[in-house]
Amino acid sequence: MSSSTPRLVRTAQSDPVPPAADRADPTGPADAAGPTTPRTTPNENGDPGRTGTRARPDVAGRLFAMTATGAGATILVVLAAVAVFLVLRAWPAMTASAEELSEGIQWFPEGQTLLGFVGPLIFGTVLAAVIALVIAVPLAVGIALFTSHYAPRRIASGLGYVVDLLAAIPSVVYGLWGVVWLAPRLYPVWTWLADNLGWIPLFAGPASQPPRTVMTVGVVLAVMILPIITAVSREVFLQTPRLHEEAALALGATRWEMVRMAVLPFGRSGLISASMLGLGRALGETMAVLMILSPGFTYAFELLQAGRHQTIAANIANQFPEANPLGVSTLIATGLALFVITLAVNMAARWVVSRRKDFSGAN
Predict the structure, then answer these.
(1) Which one of 62, 140, 162, 348 has the largest count of C-beta atoms within 10 Å of its C-beta?
(2) SS3 of residue 186 by DSSP
(3) Residue 284 in contact with residue 342, Cβ under 8 Å?
């Protein structure tokens, strides 16, 4: 018994430990009966972690991509279809002579070409929209700054809701309000401007009574586009980095200096985009202008005199019910001119925004 124990110890000590290269892999064929670690294969996007040798196709992702692409292509198709429709339907009027237009259309000016007919309409449309923009943009910027940086939260929320509610009012209601209530109350203001600033061609008198002038139309259009410009400007101003505002205040700037140095430069491109949206709305407004403006076909800068201006949209709405085929073609030709103007305005706005997007809130 005592002689066998040392022999066993010597045997255990004499057996060397096999090197690591000669050891059997527990997951290999030598230990096939034991547990194995599941192998993972990368999926089609190269991301490991999905068990198995085949990755399931991302059907939902592909379907969403196709839907988004189709929606974007639909916009281009619709825009091209509208342009083609306008050109085809306006072609008879565009190729007709001045005599054919005068004889075939009852309300067409005698001896006037199509370009001579469309010119005053373009002038009146742009003039009314510019007046509205000049009045609305400063008010919109002031309201947006007040609700975003000055007013308490409750007051800002209530005022923002009221301003946004103006966008829900139909244009015919604005027209009734302008012609019945606003125009008589603006007449003393226009009379004062004509008496005291009549030496300026824009305010040359006498002021018309009733004041169904392009200036009154501009005021009504300014109220109509005010919610659009205010809403977009407010959201852009709220995106100003808080660090920029705090840095300006830490350097000793007042609240106004902080707004001027940090908020307005950051939101300049967004403000331009908001103004162009409002301009597009003003260019295409129909019912309010039709109900207020006394029409005329001249290139006149007298804003306080009636019977001088007319817009494209209002003229189409006024003449379309009684127009013959050639008259409809002429009206569609004026609509094509409005389409080109709106497209040019939007392209110019996009160009301005793209130039300054790296330095403002448009990025």
Answers:
(1) 140
(2) helix
(3) yes
Query: Which residues 6+ apart lie within 8 Å of 102 measured at CB?
Result: 108, 109, 110, 111, 112
Residue 70 banded pLDDT, cuts 50, 70, 90: very high
Residue 272 CB coordination number (10 Å) = 19
Note the pLDDT tens digit of each residue in 219-268.
999 999 999 999 999 999 998 888 988 898 888 888 888 999 999 988 88
Structural domains in the chain, sorted by start: 81-359 (1.10.3720.10)
- Cα–Cα distances in angstroms (integers) from residue 25 to residues 36, 38, 39, 224, in the given order: 11, 15, 16, 80
- pLDDT tens, residue by residue, 266-296: 888 889 889 998 998 999 899 999 999 999 9
φ and ψ of 331, to 5 deg: -65, -40
Residue closest to 213 by CA, chosen among 236, 239, 184: 184
